[in-house]
What we know:
Blueprint: H1 2-28, E1 39-44, E2 57-60, E3 66-68, E4 74-79, E5 84-88, E6 95-98
Antiparallel strand pairs: 1-4, 2-3, 2-5, 5-6
Amino acid sequence: MSKLLLQSKAILFCCLFGLAMLLVVSNSTFAQTNQNDSRTINGTVIDQTGETIPGVNIIIKGTVTGTVTDIDGKYEIIASTGDILSFSFVGFEMQEITVADQ
């Protein structure tokens, strides 16, 4: 009985996680496409040793617009100059980077 309960909880967790990721990715395609200086920002998230990190959450601070790094640690998000990108991942300190004209 407990094995069945554990399997049910694992399936529920996977479904909820998948739904959350779908919502995050879908929000990133709709936001800020009407601003004049909006552009696609892309990059790769790495740790101190140079290893890529999959599954990092990247949110434009103060909005619900965000994305998640892929299996290779790569991301793409539409943002404007002055937006603050907030990078977070379990076990790591959150970092914020302001989008500049570069």
